[in-house]
């Protein structure tokens, strides 16, 4: 099986760019592939007013979260965008202001990067 890392960068104003990659991640996981998802850049705003997100995108997020596919949220971006409390309320830890994920380490570990 293959390894896939989805790096979400799109802001939540375009929910399809959040929902679709999350759906693809779930499909790959269901098929037995190794999958991780990172919220980075503008996608860190996803956690602000989470309950107000459109149902299809929110459902895709919940499915990916339930399957433990979400590896994390960029510390630097969450800090810079002022959404630390919203991110932590979803159970993700912000530990400083370092940029994440380490794409070099992901590639070294054999992950194919999908940047959306």
TrEMBL record:
Domain of life of the native organism: Archaea
Entry-linked InterPro entries: DsrEFH-like, Sulphur_relay_DsrE/F-like
Protein name as annotated: DsrE family protein
Native source organism of the sequence: Halosimplex aquaticum
